[in-house]
Amino acid sequence: MGLELYLDLLSQGCRMVYIFAKKNNIPFEFKHVELFKGQPYREEFGKVNILKKVPALKDGTFTLAESTAILLYLSQKYHTPDHWYPSDLQKRAQVDEYLSWHHTNIRANAPKTLWIKVLIPLFTGQTLPSEKLQNVLKELATSLKQFEEKFLQDKPFIVGSEISLADLVAIVELMQPIGVGCDIFEDRPKLLEWRSRVEEAVGKELFQEAHKMILNIKELRNIQVDPHLKEHLAPVLMKMLK
Amino acid sequence: MVIELYLDLLSQPCRALFIFAKKNNIPFEFKHVDLLKGQHSSEEFGKVNVLKKVPALKDGDFTLAESIAILLYLSRKFNTPDHWYPSDLQKRARVDEYLSWQHTAIREKGCQVFLTKVLVPFIIGQPFLPEKFEEAIKELNSVLKQFEEKFLQDKLFIAGSEISLADLVAIVELMQPVATGYNLFEKRPKLAEWRSRVEEAVGKMLFQQAHEMIMNVENLSTTPLSPELREQLKQQLLKH
Predict the structure, then answer these.
(1) B132 CB within 8 Å of a chain A CB
(2) Fold exhibited by the domain B84-221
(3) Does this model's pTM top 0.80?
(4) What is the value of ipTM here, to two decimals?
(5) What is the pLDDT of residues A107-141, one digit of tens each?
(6) In B, which residues are within 8 Å of A153 by CB distance?
(7) Which of B73, B89, B97 sits opposite A77 (nearest CB)?
(8) In B, which residues are within 8 Å of A112 by CB distance?
(9) In the sheet where A62-65 sits, what is the strand order?
(10) Topology of B3-80 in CATH?
C-alpha cells in the first residue's frame, strides 16, 4: 500500500502538502475529503485522523496529522532537495522560526477573511457588519508588516536565496484572502515580488492547479451544505460572530 | 562567546528552554527580560528580537526567536540525546505533530485560563469575569481530552517510551493554568502519571526551580506597575 494523502484543496494546509508532494514527484494517492459534504469518508477518515482535520497522511499503518509535520516527514523520507529544509543549522532554524510564528500570526488572521466573506453567510445566511472584516484586515496588516520586516527583509525568500518550506507555508495561507477578493498584495510591492518568485520556484502551473478551488470560491455559494455539518459548525460560527 | 538566552520564567516557552538547556548542560548566559517591568518592549531587546517577545537566543551575531526553533537549534548544535528529537522518522513526526498542534490548542487555551484568572485581575487591574474564566476552562478541558486521546494514548510519553521535546513543551504550558489554582491533573490520573514521569525524566529539582516564579505568581501582583506599562499590557492582552 502506497502513501495516502487526505486532502481538500480549499484548505491551506492541504495545498502546501499537495504542492510539495507534486513538486518533488512524491507518489501518493489523493484521497479527497470534501469539507462541505457529508461523506461516507467521514467515519473512515476518523481512523486516519482522530482530530478529523485535513490534511492527514497514511503511510502503511502510520498515520499523521498537522501539515507542518507532514511536510517535514515527506521531506525527510523522500530526501527532497536541501533548500526545502536546509541542513545548514542557522538556515534551518530560520525555517523553524517562521513555521512556529506562522500559527498564531498569519494563520490566525488570513483564514478569517474566508469565514467572514463566504462561509458564515453560507452556513448561517447572515452577513457580518463590515467592521468585522476591517478588524481582521487590520490584524492581518500587522502580521504582514512583521512578515516583511522580520522574516523576508531584503532577501528573495525567507531563508535567503532559495525557496524553503517557510515560503510555501506562508504563500498558501495568503492566497486565502485573495480567493475572497481581499487583495493583500495590492499595496505591498515587495510582498508581491516575493509571491512571484515563490510561484516561479514552485511552478506556475502547479501553483494555479492547487489554487483553482480557492480562487473560484464564490461558486461555493451555490453548494448544498450537509445539514449535519451545519449543525456541527454552528457553535464555532457563533463564536466568530461574537 | 557563550550563547545568550533571553528569558522570563513566568513565560511557558522560556521555562521549556531553561529546562532543556540546564538538563543538557548547555552553557548559556541567562539574560533576564522582566515582562512585568515591560523590558520586552525596550529598544535594546528589540535588537535581539524585533518581535519583542521572549524567549530569544543570541549566538554570536545570530539571533533567533520562537521557543520551538530555539529548542531544535540547541538540540542540533549540542548533539543532545536522540530521544529529545528522535532520528527515527515516525517518532520524530509524532514530536513535530504535537509541536504544531499545540500552538492553537494546549498553549492557546492554557494561556487564556491564565489571562482571565491572573493577568487581567491582578496585573492589569480589571475585574475578574467568572463567565470568561469558566469558558476558558471549558475550552482547556476540551483540548486536554484531545491530548489524552490522540497524543498520549496509552504510551509513557508522546513519542513513545522516552521523553521528547513534545512532552517538555506540553508540561510547561499545563503548569500555567495549574499556577492559577486550577488543578487539571486532579481528576485525570493518566495525565497525572504522565506528569510524574516527565518531572522524573527532567529532574525534580530542575523542574521545581524552573516553576518557582509561576507557582508564586500571585505574590507578584504586589509589584506596582507603572500606569504606562499597565496600559501597554492591557492593549497587548485584551485582544482576546
Answers:
(1) no
(2) Glutathione S-transferase Yfyf (Class Pi); Chain A, domain 2 (1.20.1050)
(3) yes
(4) 0.95
(5) 999 999 998 998 888 888 888 889 999 999 999 99
(6) none
(7) B89
(8) none
(9) A29-32, A3-7, A56-59, A62-65
(10) Glutaredoxin (3.40.30)
